[in-house]
Amino acid sequence: MIVEWSDDDEQKPLDFVRMAKFGLAFTVITSPFAHAMHTRVLPGLFPESTKFYLLKRTVFHQTFFASTCIGAFYYFLSMLDGKSMKECWADTKRTWWPAFKANQLVWYPANYITFKYFTMHYQFVFMSVVQVFFNVILSYIHYSSKKQQQQEVASEPMLATSDVICT
Question: Is residue 105 part of a domain?
Fold first, then answer.
């Protein structure tokens, strides 16, 4: 919603289809994996009794979980846009790096707060709240990347019919 109002100087009506796609991607991709990660995987691999568990959980989460989840999220989002597998892969490659950098800025502090101050039962709730706001960043990256690609295609020189040499 915030991105809808900040994309251009002019105000456009909210794109409810876009919001529904992000909600579906969050529900299908992010939430189940995050729930499993925070309730099963991280406590199983790095119990609180282990030395440096906070650092280990955060690094594991940001290295393996975040990179995989961002790729799956953007691929699924491109599928919802009706793109072919090749186009989905191209979109994912184009948006993954900016999203991963933003992810590092948001989630390292969020993970530290989560693992340090919340019990396991409340970690997923806190992370879900942060994820809602992070989705604004993901939406901005996805749709600004899409706009940039459209502008690049539009600025490519078109071959005029008079330029075609027929033999």
Answer: yes
Give the pLDDT of the chain (167 residues) as one tens digit per residue.
Answer: 444 445 455 566 778 888 888 889 888 888 888 888 888 998 899 998 888 988 999 999 988 999 899 999 999 999 998 999 999 999 999 999 999 999 999 999 998 898 889 988 888 889 889 988 888 888 888 878 666 665 555 555 544 444 444 44
Instruction: Please give the angle made by the CA atoms of 79, 95 and 75, to the nearest 5 degrees.
Output: 20
How many structural domains comprise the chain?
A: 1
Enclosing domain of residue 104? 37-143
Integer angstrom CA distances of residue 78 from 11, 66, 67, 143:
25, 18, 17, 11
Within-domain flag for 155: no
